[in-house]
Amino acid sequence: MEVTTILTTVYSDLETTTEDIVEATTINITLVTDDPGKGSLILNETIVDLNVTTTEYIPIVAAATAFASLIIIGLFAVSIFIVVLIRGRKRFQEFPFFAIVYHLTAANAIHILLQLTTVLPMLFFDSDEESPNRFWYKVGSYGIMITEQAALYFTLLMTINRFAVFVFPSILSVFSAKGIHIISTFIWAYINFIVFWNYNYGTTKTFSRKTISMQEVLLGTNILTRFFTLSSTFLPIIMLGMYLIIFVFIMKKRQIADNQNQKKTERDTSLVVQALIITIALEIVNVTDVLTPLFKNVTLSLQWIWTIFCYCATIFNQLVNPLFFLMVNKMVRITESRRVPLRATKKLCYGCCAWFFRDEPKERTVVTF
């Protein structure tokens, strides 16, 4: 009788303990990201030894070829733009706006160079945990994350500069040469802090005792990580809204000046189209960062295609501003071609700001598209 009572008590205790384990289903653990960047899904494989079918392999090779081609195009375009900036440096130094362009172009060049030297080799060479390639990938990914943030915030600074010219001219004094250098220094410090924080404290994972698995929280659990993620996502939308407001102000000034001709209207529309392309490119990069953890459980071929697409999106994002400057900006095109004498530069280089502002201080504050 006593033995039966003891066994019943032990079984009852065991059942209670089991219920307690089931109820405590999740534990939040903050982990340092071992493999930063977008390539963490494919680090343990190379494109030459993938265990996929021929049907799955062809799209991967096509995506990798497009990625390599985009890197070459990016290097060529950014190199040309840097040469143009160097050749016209004396002329560009008269306009504080180009100080922002220098910082943005530096970020573009560093980003594409890191893609060439870290990401592209990763597709073809082993990157196991102990290899030097893995360490170099981590260094490169850290730099790529910094330059992605730099592209976002220096594009934002250019947008605010243009917004000030057309909508709030009273704050143009902030955009002096000294003011832009101070703001740019703050931006570099800020984006380095963002990347440092996200790298060390931003990856929060939930462990499920029921499924015995880890699930990554997309926005993290700390306030700063959520703020950085949400701000990066919504800033391109805010920039697009600012450009739309600029477009409305331009059209109103056109009506007041009774200066509605087809050529200038097309140029106004071009401003909005370029802004739309720039902001979409920024938004795609931010959205891919958020969605990448969701691809950890899909097929290997889909992981490769998604990863290469993410890297292509970042390169296009770094390319879009230099390409627009080379193709559209009059001052850059004049410097590139060397066809126009110096005395004609003043009239042409002020861009769309010269349509409305007569006084030289305002004109010299910004050069837009």
Keywords:
369 residues; mainly alpha; three-stranded antiparallel β-sheet; 12 helices; 69% helix; globular; disordered N terminus; disordered C terminus
What does this structure look like?
The protein is mostly helical. It has helices spanning 2-23, 54-87, 89-92, 97-122, 132-166, 177-201, 223-257, 262-291, 300-327, 330-337, 345-349, 360-363, and strands spanning 26-30, 204-208, 213-217. α8 runs antiparallel to α9 (300-327). It is globular, with a radius of gyration of 26 Å. The model is unreliable at 1-34, 205-215 and 339-369 (pLDDT under 50). The chain crosses the membrane at residues 57-85, 97-124, 144-168, 180-199, 227-250, 271-292, 304-328. Keywords: Membrane, Transmembrane, Transmembrane helix. It comes from Caenorhabditis briggsae. This is G-protein coupled receptors family 1 profile domain-containing protein.
Note the beta-strand portion: under 5%
List low-confidence stretches: 1-34, 205-215, 339-369
Number of helices: 12
What gross morphology would you assign? globular
